[in-house]
Amino acid sequence: MKFDKHRNIFILVAFYAISRVMIFLLGVRFDASPITWYWQYLDPQLLGGESLLGNLWLLHSQPPLYNFFLGFILNIFGENYTLGFHISYLFIGLILCVSLYFLLREFRVKQWVSMTVALLFSISPSAISYENWLFYTYPICAVLSVVALMGIKLARTHKLSYAVCFLVLTSVLVLSRSLFHPVFYLISVILAVLLTDRAKRKKAIGAGFLIAVPILVILLKNLLLFGFLGTSSWFGLNLAKVSTFMLPDREREAMVNDGTLSEHALVHPFGELWRREEWLAKTEIPIYGSAATDSMYKSTGENNYNHSAYIILSRQYFSDAVSVLSKRPAVFVKAMVHAYGHYFAPSSCYPLVEDNVRKLGVYAGIYEFVFQGSPLMLTRLELALAEDSGNYISVILSLNLLMLTLLPVALIYWSIQVLKRKEDWILIIPVLLIFAFATVAGNTVEVGENNRFRFMIDPLIIVLILVALFRMFAPFHKLCLDKE
């Protein structure tokens, strides 16, 4: 049955709206509580005040764009901010659903198949739980999907307009999430220029420089005000998690005692400032004249992770991490084994969204068994206990076994296509770029939350796997793909 494009979009919107009503009736509610205590957010009093831009200027722990979004909603909706955030995330979810549909259509996946896949993703426990959680994971997932779509459009048409859209959205990623380092933008500019029509490549280069201005301003600001070059001052804190804090406690203590590591190696990198009172008393901490950087606590009573002390701490943790990696390189290998293990866990297996997952009841378990191949649905705590006790059978049965099995097959297929330049090989390049960067960067600096990091690229993984399967196997090819 053939549908015109506009009718398909209407069906997607209608199904999405109906599904959200049903999800609400199941008891799922939007969780806006992170605004009061999450490490990544400025004090809500500062975000909701008149000096939003001034406070964002002194934000060094994160790129500023997502905090700007938080402040914008707080200023517009006031006490009804939960409603404002919920409406925003519903709209983001709709964009994500529609973009996945168009991504599949770019690879000639039939309309009914593309619609089915997009709708099934939109009602997955992961999509539902992340859509109802005030964190940047869900918006970044939507932006990445649209970035990939613009990249494919550019590869197909070589139009300058798609190059500009691709780079604007890439800059949004860099200004929202520190995982997407400015180097990612530079790589994207190179790709955009190469994919743009030869006659307009100079314009593409000019657009790349112009769009980079906000990124360059943030980099220069952080260098001049805070003494580091980057979009986040937390790099040393994150690196410590995959190095220093992979060491057994006794070994870490011994390295502190013999002077190899600093005293900070005994305190978790994201430990509160009150745990470091002695160090604070003897250390000269820069004062900037704002609660955003000078106050130890937010107005909610929570620790302020944008305090200027964390800039100094991050440098020290970085130094300790370098020492550990040079003397105990095996700890990094251990970290990567754990990171990639967590990478393949269902993204709904994450403690901060598990309350809404539980409200989905038996549906969540059935969905993850049927569509992810996860026979055993564990909470994050249960997964950690299984790991610690050596119950690796339970750990394996709780993983996304379909992805674990099919993703390597799909990557081999696409590698062959690119190397031999077969059948629209150029179209997959933007998808592979985003997938590779997010996977490698995310797993290199994080252990434990890797499945949350992976959720951002789940729609792209779906595209990589399904299109490869549809093309590799003749029955799927005829059933699921349009003729060339």
Give a description of the structure.
This protein has 484 residues and is mainly alpha-helical. The chain has 27 helices and no strands. It has helices spanning 5-25, 44-47, 52-57, 65-77, 81-106, 111-122, 125-131, 137-157, 160-174, 182-195, 201-211, 213-226, 235-241, 249-257, 277-282, 291-294, 309-327, 330-343, 354-359, 362-372, 380-388, 392-397, 401-420, 425-444, 450-455, 458-472, 474-480. Helix 4 packs across helix 5, helix 5 runs parallel beside helix 8 and helix 23 (401-420) crosses helix 26 (458-472).
- Give a count of the beta strands, DSSP E runs of length 2 or more: 0
Write down the overall geometry: globular
Which class of secondary structure composition applies to the elements?
Answer: mainly alpha
Detail the poorly predicted runs. Answer: none
Give the H and E element order.
Answer: HHHHHHHHHHHHHHHHHHHHHHHHHHH
| Major beta-sheet overview | none
β-sheet strand percentage: under 5%
Number of helices: 27
